[in-house]
Design brief:
The chain has 447 residues and is mainly beta. It has four helices and 29 strands. It has three domains: 1-22 and 112-129 and 379-447, no CATH class; 24-106, Thrombin, subunit H; 134-374, Jelly Rolls, CATH 2.60.120. The chain is 12% helix and 39% strand. The strands form six sheets. Strands 13, 15, 16, 17, 19, 21 and 22 form a seven-stranded antiparallel beta sheet that branches. Strands 12, 14, 18, 20, 23 and 24 form a six-stranded antiparallel beta sheet that branches. Strands 9, 11, 25, 28 and 29 form a five-stranded antiparallel beta sheet that branches. A hairpin with a 2-residue loop joins strand 15 (226-235) and strand 16 (238-248). Helix 1 crosses helix 3 (393-405), helix 2 crosses helix 3 (393-405) and helix 3 (393-405) crosses helix 4 (416-429). The two termini are 24 Å apart.
């Protein structure tokens, strides 16, 4: 199913709505101070006698999209340079910062009014409109000396509906260790300064782009920080301390792990380029302090059955990587791929509420293979200047204008631009609300 039409940011729509009302001046600052903004651009054409912009609201947006807004107390022009004076701004306007002016002549609205009207449009259809979402949530599990086989997985958060479960159409690209190699041993990470990180050396079977590494992990207690995986170059059989280019994974919230063993997928985005037969090391670490009651276990093979690297630990008080020559950790590596193969609904996957929400898998295509859940998430309000508004811009414009001008209903407007905008908005709002039909096999999530 196609993604919803998304084509405008909060800033773009706010300026577009204000322009329809005739309440939008935009430009780029040439400088300023804590109480002024200067510009030598088109703004110089606005009259200073009377002060056309006095009382209007000035919004300044810096290069990191931080915003400060104040009402203009003085508007002066000298030798083509415009100086707008305001109460103290949150930061000093500098050359290259953009600005916009609203509530001009008392006939428009403040920035917050425009932003609130955009979010009101989103809220108005939130119950009937969703955005596509997906996640690499876990890896398939099977095998093991104890006949370990898992079909149920916790349902990830953030979904209102799910309509598909896929598995990655790539085979493991390393002579990896699976649960059949697990011999009952596991090693803690983040429980003491002697194990602030643990690591595993490895080599890939062929040169290429790699996107996923699966580790067999469990949590102990209730860790609340994040865990992540680095890929480091080699230094005489141990990690060098230097990541390969883009060799760090997305972070995983440790609390989302199970208190029983599970393949946890670390996704590399962008993926990482690895060279055949070259020694690398994957290094598991936590973002928080060591905690003897709340930490992570990585499942281990003390027979050292993997020939292309060894396990090891890292101590923070000495910043030393140390090999454990008789052990390897359980892991698997997969190439980056756009080939995701759908599982059959009902037979291949199903969602069940059993105490806590679960996904059940009926098709197992190979151990540790990444699983992706496709679904729909509720659209949400926007707040940052660069946030993309999740519904069609013309509907947002029309709803926002109707809401902003509703206080003028039944009154004569001296401003013809406002009258034209109101007429346009009324015509658009006569159309049905944007809605989204649910995809086939969509299942509502109740958690």
């Amino acid at each position: 199913m196609a993604a919803p039409t998304i084509s405008a940011t909060l800033q773009t729509l706010r300026r577009r709505i204000a322009s329809r009302i005739g309440d939008n001046i935009v430009g780029t600052a040439s400088g300023g101070s804590s109480v002024t903004l200067t510009d030598t651009g088109d703004i110089a054409r606005f009259p200073t006698d009377p002060q056309y912009l006095k009382g209007a609201e000035l919004t300044v947006i810096n290069t990191t999209n931080t915003v400060t807004s104040r009402h203009i107390t003085n508007h002066a022009v000298s030798s083509g340079t415009v100086t707008l004076t305001t109460p103290t701004l949150d930061f000093t306007p500098a050359s290259g910062h953009s600005y916009e002016i609203h509530n001009i002549g008392g006939r428009g609205f403040d920035k917050s009014d425009y932003d609130n009207s955009i979010n009101a449009a989103i809220d108005n259809i939130a119950d009937g409109y969703f955005t596509d979402t997906y996640s690499v949530a876990f890896g398939m599990q099977s095998g093991g000396l104890d006949g370990f086989r898992r079909h149920e997985y916790p349902m990830p958060s953030g979904y209102n509906y799910i309509y598909g479960v896929d598995y990655l159409g790539e085979s493991a690209s390393v002579s990896n260790l699976l649960t059949s190699s697990y011999d009952g041993t596991l090693r803690a990470m983040g429980d003491a300064t002697a194990r602030t990180r643990i690591w595993q050396g490895f080599k890939v079977l062929s040169t290429g782009i790699y996107g996923y590494i699966a580790l067999l992990l469990e949590k102990v207690g209730s860790p609340t920080d994040n865990i992540s995986l680095d890929i480091m170059t080699d230094s005489s059989g141990i990690p060098s301390g230097t990541n390969v280019s883009k060799g760090d994974s997305d972070v995983i919230v440790a609390s989302t792990l199970d208190a029983e063993r599970r393949w946890v997928i670390f996704r590399f985005d962008p993926p990482v380029f690895l060279v055949q037969s070259t020694q690398y090391h994957m290094v598991l670490k936590r973002s928080g302090a060591v905690d003897a009651s709340n930490y992570i276990n990585w499942y281990e093979d003390t027979d050292a059955g993997y020939g292309d690297g060894t396990a090891g630990t890292y101590t923070s008080n000495g910043s030393v990587y140390t090999a454990v020559s008789t052990s390897d950790f359980i892991f698997s590596i997969f190439r980056e791929s756009s080939l995701w193969i759908p599982m059959t609904p009902k037979l291949g996957w199903r969602y069940v509420r059993v105490g806590t929400d679960k996904i059940f898998l009926g098709e197992l295509h190979g151990e540790a293979i990444p699983i992706r859940i496709r679904g729909l998430a509720a659209i949400a309000e926007v707040s940052a200047e660069t946030d993309t508004v999740p519904i069609r811009p013309e509907y947002v414009e029309a709803f926002a204008i109707s809401q902003l001008l509703s206080g003028n209903a039944g009154k004569l407007l001296a401003n013809n631009t406002m009258q034209q905008a109101q007429t346009w908005a009324q015509q658009i709002m006569m159309r049905p609300k944007p809605m989204r039909g649910l995809p086939n096999n969509a299942v509502r999530i109740y958690a």
